[in-house]
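Board notes (copied after class):
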Amino acid sequence: MTQERIITAAVVTSGEKGDGPELPKLLEISQGNGANVGVIIGGTAYSEKENLKLTAEQDIKVVSKLEAVIT
C-alpha cells in the first residue's frame, strides 16, 4: 500500500497458508505496478530469513516482529 493508501499488490491464499512465502511475489507485483518500495510493514511471518535477505539486497526496510528462530 502506498502512502496514499493505494493497494499495489494482493495475493489471496487459503487460511492455513502462511503470509511469509508471499512477500517476494507481493514485492515483485508492487514494483511491477510502479511502486517504489522502501519499507514493508507486516506481521511476524514477513521476517523469515529469506525475506530479510531479499529485502536487504534491495535496501528495503522491514518493520515486523522477528521470527523466534531469527532472534
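Comment from the instructor: Residues 23-32 form the longest helix (10 residues). DSSP finds two helices and two strands in the chain.
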